Amino acid sequence: MTNLAIMICAFIGGVTRLAISQWLPTPWATLSINLLGAFLLPVWNDFYGPKIWRQRRWAILGIGTGFFGAFTTFSSFCLDVIKLLNQQQFNTAIIYLISSIFGGLILAWLGITLSQRLADRELVK
């Protein structure tokens, strides 16, 4: 059941990424997708997934690993950096690189912090 959930959710995540990448120009689509995923994955894994699906680990993994794994993309990030460097857009490449790495870390931290606060609020109720 877990493998099927991951497969279905990965399909949906990949299609969602494709739709957004057709709407926004490269490399900013990849940056937006990866930053959104960096924030939402810990919120899903640490709070909403366990809250909604409690005993259904397959659903939590399906969305966390499948959807967010296919939605975010390290390979496109690397390709975008190389393309910018090849086009001699060094300033854009540096901004993109720094925004991706530090933005992703900061947003993942914010996602974890939000999840912890939401969980604490649930305990108080």
Provide tags for this entry:
0% strand, 89% helix, single chain, mainly alpha
Can you tell me about this structure?
- The chain has 125 residues and is an all-alpha fold.
- It has one domain (2-124).
- 89% of the residues lie in helices and 0% in strands.
- The protein contains five helices and no strands.
- Helix 2 (28-53) runs antiparallel to helix 3 (57-71) and helix 4 (74-86) packs antiparallel against helix 5 (90-124).
- It is flat and about 55 Å long.
- It starts with a helix and ends with a helix.
Supply the number of helical segments.
5
- SSE string, helices as H and strands as E: HHHHH
Share in helix: over 70%
Main sheet summary? none
Name the poorly predicted regions. none
Shape: flat
Instruction: Compute the average pLDDT.
Output: 94
Number of domain modules: 1
Distance between the termini: 33 Å
The whole-angstrom Rg is 16 Å
Strand content: under 5%
* Structure summary, number of beta strands: 0
Give the structural class: mainly alpha
